[in-house]
Amino acid sequence: MASLFDWSPTAGSNTTVDGININTGMPVQNTDNALRSILAIIRQSFSSTLQNFLAGVSPLAVASGGTGATTAADARTALGLGSTATENTIPVAKGGTGATDAATARTNLGVSAAAAVSGSGSSGKINIGPLTLTWRDHSFSGTNNYAYGDGHTYSSWARAWVEGDDSGGGSDRSIWVTASGLSSATVRNGGSGSPGPYGVLFSIGV
To answer: The CATH number of the domain where 126 resides is what?
Structure first.
């Protein structure tokens, strides 16, 4: 049997129905036959699945563009959203955050709270996204290891630098970082005399 998709959206182009002539001047009996064919073609176009869906008897299957379910929970399961869907969250693995609040979402995505500051003016740190910046006042003497601000330890990498002031009198002296560790940096005092130069040890890392 023909399909309704055999017909043209242009009315004048439709001259037959399932092989039956409906053009101007057609035999009178063709009217009855064509009408019956039209009804059959339309009915045939509706599968039992679509018929039940339109009648409200059963849900439209996923394969037909529906969810195959009659409740939100069953629909999420049918669409493969997993058990976390019962908490109204989409897991990170499926493009969501797996959370219902901002703090938990940041944790799940591995992002620190923006601009979270701790410590004081002489020793502290600030979290900026995945990065942490620290500062700590020190009196640098010789070549030694000096801890980062707020007792912070990085997990992956760190880069340190110093800003100093020769408060001990005498000739100018320089200080610089020779190595950056995860919890401290090695700082060298290039001069001599006591006390050593005062300065701030800065660090940034993950």
So the answer is: 2.60.40.3940
- Is 159 a member of any domain? yes
pTM (two decimals): 0.45
Domain that holds residue 32: 4-44
Does 39 map to a domain? yes
Domains identified in the chain, total number: 2
pLDDT tens per residue, range 17-67: 888 888 888 888 888 888 888 888 877 776 666 666 666 667 777 777 778
Report how far apart, in Å, the C-alpha atoms of 59 and of each of 9, 25, 147 are. 31, 46, 65
13-38 as b/e, with b when 16 or more CB fall inside 10 Å? eeebbeebebeeeeeeebeebbeebb
What six digits make up the tokens of 191? 């001069």
